[in-house]
Amino acid sequence: MLRIAVPNKGSLSEPASAMLHEAGYRQRKDRRELVLVDAENEVEFFFLRPRDIAVYVGSGKLDIGITGRDLLLDSGSPAEEILQLGFAGSTFRYATRPGTAKDVSEFGGMTIATSFAGLVRQHLADNGVDASVVHLDGAVETAIQLGVAEIIADVVETGTTLRNAGLEIIGEPILESEAVVIRGTGAPDDDPKVRQFLRRMQGVLVARRYVMMDYDIRVEHVEKAVGLTPGLESPTVSPLHHEGWVAVRSMVPSKDAQRIMDELYELGARAILTTGIHACRL
């Protein structure tokens, strides 16, 4: 069986399980379940702390896993990302009191508090900066107020929490993170079970981004209409019983669907419909 690590809690957990469910895999009904066997799909799921997943996958104990890019890099584990999943996006930034420093080049001799010590140490090394790093498990914004550090490094969404603590974001982002599928470095590329899993997950990603659009249009307007709905390969065009009209079917980006429907209507298209895509293979 393919052995897959899945986050058991936190911001990664529910979206990961939802995506796996959409991909046709069984998912646990009881949060206390730590292992779930999906015999029909020949997969065994292990529900683990998100921070530990890269370690298990990198060690070869599990085949692949779903975790955050930030957690993967922070772990230092011999694992690599093989697919971006598009959820749990975050930005990792430095922050400090106004006037302390402008960017990472000025951090020399200072102390930085963070929950991602491995990631920060690597970033400092990449920039040739000699600074101390203190690992904290959470609420790092209080480290400056309590005199533990001059700088903090943390996940930033709106920046409101930092501003409320009297801090400002400085320098360029350390990392743009999101949920990713990972495997051990050096694992074979041709594992058929892994390839099948990736195809299913890619199918979910596509299904979430596209809708199927159907419409009727007069023959003389087909070329302009197809220009609006080119599809992934080419749209399907079928003659209608009513002479001079054809039916067109094509996949279009869901974010553009309403605009495309308006433009098709102005072009003369009628019976314009969109339907969701639950699964696909490209």
Automatic annotation (TrEMBL):
NCBIfam families: hisG (TIGR00070), HisG_C-term (TIGR03455). It is an enzyme of class 2 (transferase). One of its GO terms (molecular function) is magnesium ion binding. It catalyses: 1-(5-phospho-beta-D-ribosyl)-ATP + diphosphate = 5-phospho-alpha-D-ribose 1-diphosphate + ATP. Its cofactor is Mg(2+). It comes from the Bacteria. InterPro entries: ATP-PRT_HisG_long, ATP_PRibTrfase_cat, ATP_PRibTrfase_CS, ATP_PRibTrfase_HisG, HisG_C, N-reg_PII-like_a/b, N-reg_PII/ATP_PRibTrfase_C. Feedback inhibited by histidine. GO terms for cellular component: cytoplasm. CDD domains: PBP2_HisGL1. Pathway: Amino-acid biosynthesis; L-histidine biosynthesis; L-histidine from 5-phospho-alpha-D-ribose 1-diphosphate: step 1/9. It is found in: Cytoplasm. Residues 49-203 form the ATP phosphoribosyltransferase catalytic domain. HAMAP family: HisG_Long. One of its GO terms (biological process) is L-histidine biosynthetic process. Catalyzes the condensation of ATP and 5-phosphoribose 1-diphosphate to form N'-(5'-phosphoribosyl)-ATP (PR-ATP). Has a crucial role in the pathway because the rate of histidine biosynthesis seems to be controlled primarily by regulation of HisG enzymatic activity. The gene is hisG. This is ATP phosphoribosyltransferase. Residues 207-278 form the Histidine biosynthesis HisG C-terminal domain. Its main location: cytoplasm.
